Amino acid sequence: MTMTNENTRQVWRWRGAEQRQHRRWLCCESTCFSADRQLHEGVFKDMSTGGTFIQARGRFQIGQAVIVAGILKRDGSEEKRSGKIVRVERTGIAVEFTDRHPTGS
After folding, report:
1. Are 12 and 2 spatial neighbours (Cβ–Cβ below 8 Å)?
2. Could you count the other beta carbons within 10 Å of the beta carbon of residue 87?
3. CB 88 within 8 A of CB 53
4. DSSP symbols for the chain
5. CA Rg, the chain, in Å?
6. Per-residue pLDDT of the chain (105 residues; tens, 9 = 90+)
């Protein structure tokens, strides 16, 4: 995977196997999430029990708190989860869930 930082024109390349704590699965589900008390819309692109990548537009910052709502489990059930942004890309954000258990729907 290649990622470009538009401000400095640096390119990072990940090499070797990804080291993730949780197994992820691909998805394409709509979501609404809040960040800095503003409501945003996006699309889940991949998901794990530890977090998600949301394709979205907006100004986001690493460390920013978010609340994500939508279909967050493989069984199709809806829930809300608290998290924080751990990566910002041109196409969206990576969110790490910070709550240990879902808050419900």
Report:
1. yes
2. 14
3. no
4. -EEEETTTTEEEE--SS---SS--EEEEEEEEEEETTEEEEEEEEEE-SSEEEEE--S---TT-EEEEEEE-STT--EEEEEEEEEEEETTEEEEEE--SS----
5. 14
6. 444 444 444 444 444 455 556 666 687 889 999 998 899 999 999 888 889 999 999 999 999 999 999 877 667 778 899 999 999 999 999 999 998 765 444
| Domains of the chain by start residue, with CATH | 22-97 (2.40.10.220)
| CA distance linking residue 99 with residue 29, whole number of Å | 21
| φ, ψ dihedrals at 66, nearest 5° | -135, 155
